[in-house]
């Protein structure tokens, strides 16, 4: 006898008309062939439901595929970066260091210093890369094309814009690094190209432009635009390109070597001995064997770890679970809608396997379409982002487009499998299909399995305990790399909670006797019709669990950031920094005049640091010193310490959780944060004492006392109202080896002085008056003691009140030097927008899930609705019932989701917050993790979203049901 399923197929093959004459394999193939054709027809007939399933599968697949493409594209290899670093050159050399180097084949991994570098014939000491291009050409036997970066500023539409300039002339034959997009190449000084970054910043692409470089105005002519690659492979951050530097005497830079043979490893090592860091195209493409490297260099090479395998495993597991749960309600809808047709087929001889094939075939058809579409869209999104320089730089996709084909295919297969797994549960239930009950319109889920409940309880408990244990272990030891174990335990927790859902729904239904009628009917319907309620509850549970986990982790991290935040100035005051780290008297006067022209009456005071004589501290180009110099030490000497100990505490043994050396707590050799001496004008220092409610100390400060901040838990530095301050000098010869040298061994001209002092408690609030330092000194006292100072910033105070954001912007636009400013606003949360976006995404997701399940419930209750209408109930009653269905499913899923999400939220908060830093001293601290539970947000979400779903479900009840004769 031919089954109903075979007769329902559009055109069954002739060999399927007599199944009793076919082999088992033939019957299997025939059953699947018919099921797939029926699935295709059902997909075409129910486009809305099919589209929902496709979206639920395709969206996570697209996101993960895009993440894979973005991750691979962001990982710019050293070979991929060759065009941006040296174009078509054979090598790129960085400005030499005074010491010989030993580098890895890829210098980005690391270099090590050694003895004094060998001299370079014809080298101009202190000269730029342009001045020394000839020396490098003669040394290497190749054409050396110099590069040099400079800072400038310009004014655009009344605002000040910082500009990064690249001095580079490609005309000797460099290609690939710079591509002309319009105009021509600059040929002489005063002509520039505007790069992509400059176009985005609003620089003109033609005409003239006035720049301020090295405290002088320079008029330049724009002759074209160009795309410039950075040394990391992506678009350069340089705004303009000029053929020669604005200031030829600027030290630093590098050279691209053109022509000649490739630069081999032996030549690289030879150039290292002369202080050059060498990026060789040949060595990057064909690195030497490990046997050619020293043990120290080989150990640095081993740190380059590729974790794409872990990323794919984690992402694939999450995709499988999330997609399965999200698409589950849609397949429950499909199976329930076909229940009567499947029961009719079973009554006419269709086997259980054939019934299951019909449901699974739809999952296969839709899963293949959705997963394939998601993968294609994910790759397409990566391609589009890579083509947009702004988006690519924003997302860090700076390299060439790189599609991991194997990973994308694996993701696609996983997505297809998730659709099939989601359909397995309703397919398996067809083996217990009550044919008579379904034909009569009565369908109730069988009694929930106690075994399933027990397994779910064990899995959830073990998953939760293991998750907390792993997180606690990671936070205590600081280790990493347990991502896969964490994901596995999280999946066990979620799946176990889902397995608890059937029994919980039954328990809720039994305990609903005191609820209003509509809610009581909804909870009992959810308990009876678990085949459609459980998938909906599971999907809502998973979504809310992820949201809960994210909110707890982000809220805890934000609370830690708030606790660790230490203000760097009084609230509403502005700090102005110089571009080179220094502000000379002329720059101070100019900035003050410009500010007061914008806002008369501003209090503007210089803020200085002790000058320790280090030439690298305020170097504009970062070049290493080549001539001997002296370091100056001005340190407070704690009780029990010698002056030399404040420069270098040789007896201190650091540990992972150690405080700073007890003798190096304050001064030019202070270790950690907050160890600086800050020098202020007497008026500004007195204003800050008033802000600290220390008016009684003003007289002592006027008499020459310094103000010392005492962090909680640290010993006082005062003795008889004084602090002991040492001064001394240490000669440094950068040409000598720096390995294993005691900085205090050559300490000279040591002098100690007892300076009167007042001590104030130092905490997060009072630290604002100290500019993040530890001691405040008036300029009069610093001059009297002979302490050398350098003005590094200005502080701006408005007597009328805190400086507004508008005034701060106008002040920033008003200065024409390369300076920048910040206004103290206190701690500002960075999570507000992120949380709002997350709430919006999850709200939309849960509304779709809830309304899908509610629509199924109402479709199955058409007979009940018709009976109620025949008895006189109006549209309002039916709307209340629909609203109750949506509300009950949403609340149950949301409450369970919050309960489940708390555990991984705590697990994430442990490693995020267990290790912190003292905001005053910067010392690491170990303590209990910070846990913040955003109960108001979660409670509002768990109630508001079901309420909105209930309103939408009620609004969807419009037409009256057909009052037909009931079967029972």
How does this structure look, described?
- Helices cover 47% and strands 17% of the residues.
- It is of the alpha+beta class and 968 residues long.
- Among the domains are: 105 residues, no CATH class; 182 residues, no CATH class; 69 residues, no CATH class; 148 residues, no CATH class.
- The strands form four sheets. Strands 1, 4, 5, 6, 7, 8, 9, 10, 11 and 12 form a ten-stranded mixed sheet that branches.
- The radius of gyration is 36 Å and the shape is globular.
- The two termini are 31 Å apart.
List keywords for this structure.
single chain, 968 residues, alpha+beta, ten-stranded mixed beta sheet, disordered N terminus, cell membrane, transmembrane
Number of strands: 24
- Largest sheet geometry: 10 strands, mixed
Helix content: 40-55%
Low-confidence stretches: 1-21, 303-308
Chain-averaged pLDDT: 79
Strand percentage: 15-25%
Number of discrete helical segments: 29
Q: Which value, in Å, is the CA radius of gyration? A: 36 Å
Q: Helices and strands: which structural class?
A: alpha+beta
Give the termini separation.
31 Å
Outline type:
globular
